[in-house]
Design a protein that fits this description.
Elements lengths: L2 H8 L1 H10 L3 E7 L2 E4 L5 E3 L1 E6 L12 E4 L5 E3 L4 E4 L3 E9 L2 E9 L2 E5 L3 E4 L4 E4 L2 E4 L13 E4 L5 E5 L7 E5 L3 E9 L2 E10 L5 E4 L3 E4 L4 E3 L2 E5 L2 E2 L6 E4 L5 E3 L4 E4 L3 E9 L2 E9 L3
Parallel strand pairs: 2-9, 11-18, 20-28
Antiparallel strand pairs: 1-4, 3-7, 5-8, 6-7, 8-9, 10-13, 12-16, 14-17, 15-16, 17-18, 19-22, 21-26, 22-23, 24-27, 25-26, 27-28
Helix pairs in contact: 1-2
């Protein structure tokens, strides 16, 4: 074709119009290129931009077909709207003519709360409870750990308190022998974790004296110590009872008080072991 003749005969403006009419699709780009979801059902609108072979936007864009290589992970409709379905990675393709453009979608859907069951040995012992969230593929999602709510079923067996400096963990403290559970929740996910409180092993419950003489209205202190051989064992609660509270009373710490003349027995108990103290309250 003799372009010089065209320029002379039709004018430069006409030539430009003819050249524009020859524009062909050179490439397709998809925006955004990457998207991350952390919940099922979330959506993002993708946009396909068509560029001509002259590096200019297409004046007459071609129809675009949208597809996903993993529709069970992320689906896409005819208009480029992507919906998160399950944990995984999917490639979304926009095709027009012979050109294609792609975008990547990464999905992590919280699926489970994970933590260790706890065993505490000894009343008063404290251990951390550190729950976490994992996705459907079992991958940790640490960004959600601080948002897990936790409650203990029986606070008499073990207490559960938050740690302000470490919001992702709670502290569990043994209160009494037995079993209870912690229920952890995050969004619509709920998981139970077992808490067991055991007493340390000990061989005997030793009292500081087997007998005690009191004056009227007198008082004294009885101490019962769990022992393993010749070593005291901590973390074992001891209870005290009086065989006759009209003669002598005893409080939770072993404090004894005379009430009236006579004889009575104070029993100390820890676990399955007991020891006794014979108390005599003398007459005035």
């Amino acid at each position: 074709m003799n372009y010089q003749a065209l320029v002379r005969g039709l004018g430069l403006a006409t030539l430009v119009v003819m050249a524009a009419g020859c524009q062909k699709l050179g490439s397709i780009s998809v925006d955004p290129k990457t998207t991350r979801f952390e919940a099922a059902g979330k959506t993002v609108q993708l946009k396909a931009t068509q560029t001509g072979n002259d590096n200019q936007p297409m004046k007459k864009p071609l129809p675009v077909t949208w597809t996903s290589d993993k529709a069970d992970v992320a689906s896409v409709d005819a208009n480029g709207m992507v919906t998160a379905r399950h944990t995984g990675t999917a490639t979304i393709t926009a095709a027009a003519g012979e050109q294609k453009g792609t975008a990547s979608v990464e999905i992590h859907i919280p699926a489970k709360i994970v933590a260790e069951d706890l065993t505490l040995v000894g009343v008063g012992q404290s251990v951390p409870f550190v729950p976490g969230v994992v996705d459907e593929a079992g991958q940790p999602m640490p960004q959600f750990a601080k948002n897990i709510d936790a409650k203990i079923e029986n606070p008499a067996i073990a207490s559960l308190v938050a740690t302000p400096d470490k919001p992702e963990q709670k502290m569990v403290t043994a209160g009494a022998p037995g079993e209870t559970k912690i229920t952890a929740t995050f969004n619509n996910i709920k998981q139970d974790f077992k808490v067991t409180v055991k007493l340390p092993d000990f061989t005997e419950l030793k009292v500081d004296s087997a007998t005690l003489d009191l004056k009227p209205e007198g008082d004294a202190k009885i101490t019962a110590t769990p022992m393993a051989g010749d070593k005291p064992v901590i973390g074992v609660p001891v209870t005290y009872t009086s065989s006759d509270s009209t003669i002598v009373t005893v409080d939770a710490t072993g404090g004894v008080k005379a009430v009236a003349p006579g004889k009575a027995t104070i029993e100390a108990k820890a676990g399955d072991k007991t020891s006794t103290v014979a108390v005599t309250v003398k007459k005035k």
